[in-house]
Design brief:
By secondary structure, this protein is mostly helical. The protein has a single domain, classed as ADP-ribosylglycohydrolase fold, CATH 1.10.4080. The chain has a two-stranded antiparallel ribbon with strand order 1-2. The longest helix has 25 residues. It is globular and about 50 Å long.
């Protein structure tokens, strides 16, 4: 239920600055999705080959064929579509209305179809079509369908507590489980920091404090609190440490996936680590490239981990700071021929105008949280 006093949205940036952050988020999400979609569910070696192809400028020649069709590089999937739908919903409603969001999802699915929609979400749509109430239709699985679309709340709400609560609420629409809510909250908290400072938001002690106060599910809290330690290690050692933590965390391992299965908790932890690693270890490289490359390193559900990691990183740096290679690949983004780069840029400006009641003023940011906890 919407609070009696509506939350203020992220209004203290000029509209053009906010539009650049939203464009970074939308285009980063779509680019990570498109790169990872090609090698989703393949062994780590194939995912790493895709990362190398990206780095060498050859990813545009890669493709995928599955039961839904044959896809050239640039095709996006459900990760991008649901992220856009949640952002638009919150920009319009200024909060999460579960009933409306459920039927907005269903309307888009029935009208346009959504490439790569997961089994739990398809079952949810089937139940809605049969007239079941959205709360009864929601799955209780710990799948990552709610995690993939959670980051947008970080750019909308000025208070961390509101961002985390909105992430929980949008998660419960389709995935009403403790694991799904916890994974969504983790992504939302880091997104909230990303939207507010670029590199300045990535102080290790501050990250640790944020993680400690926003990951309520014990299993996720134990793993996510190890992220700062892994970030302080050399890159190779840090990545292997995180993969070890994730192996221990996946309480429902699916051996048909290599390391990162479509499980909310493991997806959230690896995607957040990939983003934070990219922001701290640039070495002169494009942070978007590093976020995608790190996400692909683990294999498995690569379109989801790469889309979250690149979306968070794009939110932090803004689209204008994407590297030339990322911008060149972004020209190929599409959804079965639609949703080109110019459409995403126009959508970012539209969302920024909806979220900016005072478009010409610039103020110091007011987070209202004391810096760490909601």
């Amino acid at each position: 239920m919407k609070p009696s006093t509506p939350h203020r949205v992220f209004e203290n940036d000029r509209t053009d600055v906010l539009a650049d952050k939203i464009a970074g988020y939308l285009i980063g999400t779509a680019l990570g999705d498109a790169v990872g979609f090609i090698c989703e569910r393949q062994p780590r070696a194939a995912a790493w080959a895709q990362a190398i192809a990206y780095r060498n400028g050859a990813a545009a020649q890669t493709s995928r064929k599955d039961k839904e069709g044959a896809w050239k590089f640039g095709q996006i999937s459900d990760d991008t579509v649901f992220s856009r739908l949640v952002l638009r919903h919150i920009a319009k409603e200024k909060w999460v209305d579960g009933a409306k969001l459920a039927h907005e999802f269903l309307s888009h699915y029935n009208t346009h179809g959504i490439v790569g929609t997961g089994g739990s979400t398809r079952a949810f749509f089937k139940a809605l079509d049969k007239g079941k109430h959205w709360q009864e239709a929601a799955t209780t699985s710990g799948g990552n369908g709610a995690v993939m679309r959670a980051a947008c709340v970080g750019i909308v709400f000025p208070k961390l507590a509101h961002a985390v609560e909105a992430a929980w609420r949008q998660a419960m629409v389709t995935h009403d489980s403790e694991e799904a809510r916890a994974g969504a909250a983790l992504v939302a908290a880091i997104a909230w920091r990303a939207a507010r400072g670029g590199e300045e938001a990535f102080d290790i002690a501050d990250i640790a404090a944020t993680l400690a106060h926003t990951t309520t599910w014990r299993g996720l809290k134990n793993a996510s609190m190890k992220i700062p330690h892994a970030l302080l290690c050399d890159p190779e050692r840090g990545r292997e440490l995180m993969l070890g933590y994730i192996r221990d965390l996946d309480v429902k391992p699916d051996k048909t996936w290599d390391l990162i299965s479509p499980y909310a908790v493991t997806t959230a932890v690896w995607a957040v680590y990939s983003h934070l690693y990219a922001m701290r270890e640039t070495n002169g490289l494009d942070p978007i490239e590093l976020a995608i490359e790190t996400a692909l390193f683990a294999g498995g559900d690569t379109d989801t981990t790469a889309s979250i990691a690149a979306g968070l990183t794009g939110m932090a740096i803004g689209y204008e700071r994407f590297g030339p290679l990322a911008k060149r690949y972004a020209e190929l983004l599409n959804d079965r021929g639609d949703l080109l780069l110019d459409d995403l840029k126009a959508e970012a400006m539209e969302m920024a105008e909806m979220l900016s009641p005072r478009p010409t003023k610039t103020h110091g940011m007011e987070d209202g949280t004391g810096g760490h906890s909601p």
